[in-house]
Amino acid sequence: MNSNRGAVVALSGGVGGARFADGLGGVLSGDRLTVVVNTGDDFEHWGLWISPDLDTVMYTLSGEANPALGWGVRDDTGNAMEMMEKLGGETWFTLGDRDLAVHLRRTAALKSGESLSAVTRSMSRALGVECEVLPMTEAPRPTRIELRDGTRMEFQEWFVGARAQPEVSRVVFEGADEVSPEVSSAIEAAEIVLITPSNPYLSIDPILSLNGVRDLLAQKLVVAVSPIVGGKAVKGPLGAMIPALTGKPASARAVAEHYGNLIDGIVLEVGDGGAGFDIPVWETNTVMRSGDDRRRLAEETLIFAESLR
Amino acid sequence: MNSNRGAVVALSGGVGGARFADGLGGVLSGDRLTVVVNTGDDFEHWGLWISPDLDTVMYTLSGEANPALGWGVRDDTGNAMEMMEKLGGETWFTLGDRDLAVHLRRTAALKSGESLSAVTRSMSRALGVECEVLPMTEAPRPTRIELRDGTRMEFQEWFVGARAQPEVSRVVFEGADEVSPEVSSAIEAAEIVLITPSNPYLSIDPILSLNGVRDLLAQKLVVAVSPIVGGKAVKGPLGAMIPALTGKPASARAVAEHYGNLIDGIVLEVGDGGAGFDIPVWETNTVMRSGDDRRRLAEETLIFAESLR
Known about the structure:
The structure is a homodimer.
Chain A: E1 8-12, H1 15-27, E2 33-37, E3 43-45, E4 48-50, H2 52-62, H3 79-86, H4 97-111, H5 116-126, E5 132-135, E6 143-147, E7 152-154, H6 155-161, E8 168-173, H7 181-189, E9 192-195, H8 200-208, H9 213-218, E10 221-225, E11 228-229, E12 232-233, H10 238-246, H11 252-259, E13 265-269, E14 281-284, H12 291-307
Parallel strand pairs in A: 1-2, 1-9, 2-5, 9-10, 10-13, 13-14
Antiparallel strand pairs in A: 3-4, 6-7, 6-8, 11-12
C-alpha cells in the first residue's frame, strides 16, 4: 500500500467492476478510493427500490458477496421467494432473504426523504466497507434497451427477464441527467480515474451520460480496464452487444475505440494488444479468479496509470 | 360436517381466535364460514404494512402457521432479520423470511390501490384457505394503549416492544370507525356469530368499536368462547388486563360481564361456570392443544349456539 498516492475514482457497474474495485480497496487506503456506481439498472420490484450494481459493489467490498455468483449475498436463502411464488407473486428476479434487508432499508430510507447516497453510505459503513461507494445519481436514471424494431424494454425486463437475448440496437438513458454532487466532487479531487472492467454500454455509459461528467473526465488521467478478454466478455452480454452496436467483432480494441479520447491508456489481456491502439496499453492477466488476482490487477493498473502522468 | 347449517361469522384476534376459527373450518364448509379479523394491531414496520392478526388467521387456516409459536410461518428462517441487524435497522419485531413475502405483497397491493380485503382474499386463496377471511376495516384503525399516567403507546410498541408490561388504564381506538362493507354483509347474513377466545379488550373490542357493528350483532345469536381458563389467560396479557381495567380478578365471568347483553351464551372451561351467569353456559375443555381439540370445541360451540335458537 502506497500512502503517498492521490485520490482514485473508479467507475463501476456490477460484478466485474465490483471485483476490480475490491482489488483497489486492497491496495489503497479507504480515504483514497471512491467507487462511483451505475444506477441505470435500478428498478422497483415487490414495491422495493433495487439498486443491483450498488449492492454488488457493497457486497463485494464488504466480503458479503456470493463468491460463486458474484452478485447477491453469500449463504443466502430463498424463503421469501418461495412464499412469494405460493402467493402468486412475481419471481422472475431473484431476491435472497438477506438481500431483502438491504432493499427494505433502502426503500424505507428513500421514502423518508433520505438520499440514495446517504443510505448507501450508511449501509456500506455498517457492513464494513472502508472506501466511499457513491451512486452516480440521486434520482432515477433508467437505462432502456431499444431493439431493432424500435421498441424499448426496461433494463431488467431485457437483462434478466429476456436473458439479454433480444438484439440491442441502441441503449437509451431516461430520467434526469443530473450527476450526484458528491460524484462531481470526487472526480474533481481525483488524481486518477479508472474505468473498471464493466460493460461500457450498460454500466459505464450511463455514468458518462450524466451532465458534466465527460467534461470533468477530460481534465483527468483516465485508464480503462478491458472487460473483453480474447474476444469474449468475461461475463454478461457484452460479447454480443459490440457486433450489434458497432458492426465490428468484440475485442479490447473495440472497447478502447468506444471510449475514444476519454481514456489515456488501457489495461488488457496478454495477447489482446498489438497494433491499432493509439493510446498506451498495459498487457497482463486481467481475469480475476481470486482476491490476489484482484489486488495484483488493481496494483498494476495504478502503476500503469501513474506511469502516464 | 352438517351442510344444512346457516352462515357463521367468527370474530377473531390472533392465535387463540385463529385456532378456534381453524376448528370451525374443519366442521363447516368454506362457503358457510367468514372470519372477521381485528386490524387494530396493524402497523408499518420496515416500510411494510403488517397485519399480525390477519396473518395469524391466514397462516393457521392454511396450515402454514408455526405450530409452536402460533404466529409466523412454519419452518421459517430469520436471515433478513440477521442482515437488518448488521445494517443497524430495527429488529424488535420478528419478521421471518417467508412471512416477509406476505408483508411485501400486501404493501405493494395497498400501494397500487387494492383494498386490504382484496389482497387478503387473494393471498388466502393462494395459500388454500377455504373460508372467507375479512379484515374488520379497510382503513387503519390503530389501537392505542393508555397508561395510568395518561400517556398513549402504539399497540406493538406496548405489546411487543414493552412485552405488554406497562399497566393499561384504557384501550383507545383511533382512526376511522368505518367497518368494511363486506363485514357488515357477512354479519347480516349470519345465522350465528361466534366470539372466538381472543382478548376481549385488544382483539374483539376493536371490531365492536366500529360504527354499526353492535347494532348488527344485537339482531344476531351471539356466543362467546372464554379466553380465560381457571382464572388465567391461555396466552397473552389478558390475565393482568382484567384486574387493571375492571378491579376484579380475571375469570370467565369477567369476560361474560364485559360482553354483557351482546352475547346470548358463553362456552367456558369445566369448573369455570357456577353461579352468577345470567346467560346460558356450556362447560367443556376449551384449551386447544391439537387439531382435534379445535374441531371438537368448534363443533360443541356450534351445537350449543344452535340449542339457543
